[in-house]
Amino acid sequence: MKFNIAVLPGDGIGPEITQQSVKVLRAVADRFDHEFNFEEAVVGAAAIDLLGDPLPETTLELCKKSDAVLFGAIGDPKYDNDPSAKVRPEQGLLKLRKELGLFANIRPVRAYESLLHKSPLKPENIEGADMVIYRELTGGIYFGEKSTAEDGKSASDLCTYSVEEIERIAHLAFKAAQERRKKLTLIDKANVLETSRLWRKTVAEISKEYPGVKVEYLFVDNAAMQMILDPKQFDVILTENMFGDIISDEASVIGGSIGLLESASVGTKNALFEPIHGSYPQATGQGIANPIASVLSAAMMLNHLGLKEEAETVRLAVDLSIKLNVCTIDINKDNHYSTERVGDFLESVISDTEGHIVN
Ligand code: IPM
Ligand code: MN
Q1: Cβ count near 113 (within 10 Å)
Q2: CATH number at residue 212
Q3: 276 and 156 in a common domain
Q4: Is 168 found in the same domain as 25?
Q5: Domain of 132?
Q6: Which position among 189, 210, 235, 330 bears the catalytic label?
Q7: Residue pLDDT, tens place only, 63-101
Q8: With a 6 A CB cut-off, is 90 part of the ligand 1 pocket?
């Protein structure tokens, strides 16, 4: 089959990890006789440097017309330390999410058996942890009205949600729960926030349509603690934009490294696949960044395109690399492989139809 894939490497380690995913996808195309047409475009700080705009029109157009978007990372410290900067790299990603209508960000988190002892958490507490976070992505405080008073002495970010915005992602999360262990946890702050109360009310209403799914409600502060104490209790987590951002970084500790966590951002028309980690500027160009989060995001992309066996092949290759410790320094401190060598290994496993490497 033929697919057009927009590739947005972005900033920092974005280009080097995305390159490994493209390599892996090319191996998949060869093995399964597909045609993937990759087209690259700039976004984030790279796009500001080049065109003065974190999301140039040409990039947006390319994304709109492609079958899927593979996204690297975004962010540059030169903007983080300049509060008065008028344009910021992150605006590129936020606008892209909004323009493409990517309202649901899906972030699976699991504990890999061979990495249990690498997590700072107790192995017996995380063994078997397997959850998926449904983070609302185009609403809430990220997108509410923003202002700073003229005298610079106060600022405001408004948090707003409509019932419709809650419903559309809640249905996706309930459907996912039906296919999994049939438990959904809504994370909110309903003891304080009006928007959270609307989330609870809406989710309670929708839950009637999914009688097989057990619903639990947790305040976000408690949820942050539970994530560390007993992550196995979670199956599907549903939450608003900012809580989802924070909780998912926290949850990455369970997997042993944030460099392993993939995500899919979906809407009604377009879909974008990106690691949950950031641009890791300190590591840029050193060949130490873990490409697996990006490669697993590419596997989610294959699933999304209906290529199930292909996605499974990529996942098995990743499992093997982790089992054999063909890993970057975040996981393999003593004998680490470079970003590129991990990519090469995955490519060779996927191309190895005879099973030489596996056996
Ligand atoms: C993420 C990132 C982004 C977010 C930033 C880069 C805007 O942290 O995808 O989790 O906050 O959504
Ligand atoms: Mn984040």
Answers
A1: 12
A2: 3.40.718.10
A3: no
A4: no
A5: 103-264
A6: 189
A7: 999 999 999 999 999 998 887 888 999 999 999 999 999
A8: yes
